[in-house]
Amino acid sequence: MAGRFAPRTTRAALPHQAAADRAAAPGAEAPRTREWTPPAPLDLRLVLGPLRRGPADPTFRMVGDGTFWRATRTPVGPGTLRIARHGDRIAAAAWGPGADWLLEGLPALLGAEDDPEAFVPRHRLLALTRHRRPGLRLLRTGLVLESLIPSILEQKVTTDEAYRAWRHLVRRFGTPAPGPTADLGLHVMPDPRGWAMIPSWEWHKANVDAKRSSTILRAVRVARRLEEAATMPLPEAQTRLQLIPGIGPWTSAETLQRSNGAADAVTVGDLHLPGIVGHALADNRDADDEEMLSLLTPYEGQRHRATRLILLSGRIPARRAPRMQPGNVANL
């Protein structure tokens, strides 16, 4: 086994966090710990970045020393995961009922199941970007709902508006994250019943329109069936998610990129991505979804990785379309 569990707290594994652990409330549980050595270069910021929903995401933090904190709801309960690099090792600590589940899934979360060598660059831009970003891996959380709900909130609105809604709902109806997280303000999102019990006026306060809130309510009613998609091949997983009215190709791709580490889950229906891909690969900033998919044909099976590399390349056209204005639910 590439990693190992430590049945007791291992302070040496995370020396710079010892003070934070001691600051936890008296009698607080000691963290479970694990160390893991990645088999290849690994950039934690690139790998974990897709989990962050805005700079004040209540479920995710990166602190100044390069440590990452993640609060989530696992199949066995809430859990908090802290990840830091120590030389060539990754040191992790976890709290809460979901601690062991999170530590068991640490390698997959950090891209151990990803296969970057399956990507063969056909464009010089992508070859150079891959060379410059050797630590890029596609994460896999194994959790569908935690990525599906914020993706639904991001439908047809600005990212800032969606991030505000996510913050409001998680802080209002979630629970404080286990472990020494009080100073970070971390929260675990509600369970399916918690989402279902949110009153209509609270969706209104979060500026979430009826279409998006109804889609979330339909999803949480079949949460167990949706979570099964985390272990399905991409086509079957997409079909499972898109059985829910209100969940289409854009939302399913954004979800499965994170929950399944789906290297081919290319995002269609995005306002900007076709023009970005068209500009990078064919000098056509006016490309639509059809042309984007045509340009990505050489990367079949790896189209999501190709778009990640394009976005990391810096070859992004200036936006010419007016910025979408935040809506007001009261005016709908």
Automatic annotation (TrEMBL):
One GO MF term: DNA-3-methyladenine glycosylase activity
Positions of the UniProt region annotated as Disordered: 1-38
Gene3D superfamilies membership: Hypothetical protein, domain 2
Keyword terms of this UniProt record: DNA damage, DNA repair
Gene Ontology cellular component terms for the protein in this record: cytoplasm; protein-DNA complex
UniProt feature, compositional bias: Low complexity: 11-30
GO terms classed as biological process: base-excision repair, AP site formation; DNA alkylation repair
Stated name of the protein: Endonuclease
Organism: Streptomyces filamentosus NRRL 15998
